[in-house]
Structure formats: structure tokens, C-alpha cells
Amino acid sequence: MFLIHWMPEAENEYYDNLNFWINHNQSNTYSLKIISEVEKMETILSENPFIGKRTNYQLLVLKIVILRSFYIYYTVSDNTVSILAFKATKEDNNKHQLGI
């Protein structure tokens, strides 16, 4: 099994998205659904980290989709999956320096 490690920027993006949906919907229901799906995907990644689609061949960055509305970008090295970014699918693609 692989260890899941959230990079600080990705973790901040994740919490920012959760807070956005709590404020936008005036409810935490959708944010709880996001959390549940992210936790499921963490389990899947820990068992099979290479299921994602490669988005940056030089940096070996992969991505997976959560709820058709979010991307998790990550790399795999040794026994660790490092989550680099958590983005809404509609966000600006030039936001990160990773070519994602």
C-alpha cells in the first residue's frame, strides 16, 4: 500500500473548495459528499496509484476526477502518492507551475 501525502498548497485548495460550497449552498451537504468521495479515492490510490491519467510527462503528474467537478493532481514515488493540487474542473489551467 502507498502512503497518501497532501502537499500544503493542495490541502489549502481542498479546504478552500469545501468552504466555498458551504458558503455558496448555505449547507455542508455537498462538502460532505466531496469529503466522502476524496476519502474513497485516497483508498483507491493507496492500493493502485497508477490509475490516473498522465497530464505532464516530464514531471510524471497524473490526475483523477472527483464527482465530475474536481481534479486531484498527484505524483507517485517510492511508496508515496503526493497530492499536488485539488482544483475545480472549471478553474484556470495556468494556476499552477506544474503544467496542469
Describe, in plain words, how this protein is organized in 3D.
- This protein is α+β, with helices and mostly antiparallel strands.
- The protein has two helices and five strands; from the N terminus they run βααββββ.
- It has helices at 8-25, 29-47, and strands at residues 3-6, 53-56, 61-66, 70-77, 80-88.
- The chain has a five-stranded mixed sheet.
- A hairpin with a 2-residue loop joins strand 4 and strand 5 (80-88).
- The radius of gyration is 13 Å and the shape is globular.
- The two termini are 26 Å apart.
- The mean pLDDT is 91.
Helix content: 25-40%
Shape field:
globular
Strand runs, count: 5
Mean pLDDT: 91
Order of SSEs: EHHEEEE
Q: Describe the sheet with the most strands.
A: 5 strands, mixed
Q: Count up the helices.
A: 2
- Give the strand order, joined by hyphens, for the main sheet: 1-5-4-3-2
Radius of gyration: 13 Å
* Unreliable sequence segments: none
Distance between the termini: 26 Å
Percent of residues in β-strands: 25-35%
